[in-house]
Amino acid sequence: MIKTPQNQLVGFILALITASMWGVLPIALKELLLGMDASTIVWYRFLLAAFFVLVWLYFKDQVPSLGEIETPTKVIIIISAAGLCANYVFFSYSLNYVNAETSEAVIQLTSLFLIFGGVLFYKEQFSTSQKIGTLFIVVGLLLFFNDRLSDFKDLGSRQTIGVFIVFLSAITWTVYSLLQKKLLRNFTSFQLLLMMYWFSVIVLLPFISPAALFQLSGFEFFLLAFCCFNTVIAYGCFTEALNCWDASKVSAVLALAPLFTIVGLKFIVFLEPNYAYSDRLSALSIIGAVFLVFGSVLTALMPVLSKYLKRVRQI
């Protein structure tokens, strides 16, 4: 697709929708965990998403044939799918220990892990802009946790356990992303998602309690429906955004997700001052969150910055 100004605007809007949906998702998950365990929530999310992606690919006549896939490629698909599944479960489970602001802040480590993974496995260059972005992310994390750093001395504290689980979530998502880069040479993004969603639906079966669906309150059922459709809509917008806009620019917009989380919770606390599931971030912690976002945006925009600098040097 030719990236005309109109297409680029559409790409920006779709990326912004994705960022906002990913930003408010942990807020809904935190509440939903009161009525359903993390694995079951993830299973329902995967099940609905797998169904919609299957229908989409069926009408486009693009359903992948597993029998035609070579064994080494199947192994890579399985490892990548396991990474995505673990990422969903770990991230959701971490919200039993930390609030949404913290989970969204720590998950920004994926930007660093992707850089290091690209350097290690794809021999990509670790540029100056990436180094600066890395510095902003590290400083941002320190500022974000400025009033809670002492809590990490106790390895058994809920804060430490929760952050560690989000850390694992970031690692597993990085594994999925790095392997997906290789798989996209042979499959479309929707074909990969279909295989990974169904893999996760099957793998999670021994660990779920589907009957918990019938014990949810009306509000919790609404939250589950929102989380499920969030998966479908957010990834759909994300994929279409990549068709309209540069991947680096899309990634930069997605880095805004923590700000949507913070603003969303600030709004909830404004309406309900006694709301329990907010960290009530200090001004310094919010500055740290902005540093995190800026560092992530900078690392995402690195390819665009590199091309621009090359053009400047050639003038």
In a few lines, what is going on in this structure?
This protein has helices at 5-32, 38-59, 71-94, 100-106, 109-121, 128-144, 158-183, 189-203, 218-244, 247-254, 257-271, 283-300, 302-314. By secondary structure, it is mainly alpha-helical.
Characterization of this structure:
By secondary structure, the chain is mainly alpha-helical. The chain has one domain. It has 13 helices and no strands. It has helices spanning 5-32, 38-59, 71-94, 100-106, 109-121, 128-144, 158-183, 189-203, 218-244, 247-254, 257-271, 283-300, 302-314. The longest helix has 28 residues, at 5-32. The chain is globular and about 55 Å long. The model has no long low-confidence stretch (mean pLDDT 89).
Oligomer: single chain
Number of separate structural domains:
1
Largest sheet: none
- Tally of alpha and pi helices: 13
Beta-strand level of the residues, as a percent range?
A: under 5%
Structural class: mainly alpha
Helix content: over 70%
Order of helices and strands: HHHHHHHHHHHHH
Number of strands: 0
Radius of gyration: 20 Å
Terminal Cα separation, in Å? 29 Å
Low-confidence stretches: none
Sum up the overall morphology in one term: globular
Tell me, rounded to a whole number, the average pLDDT: 89
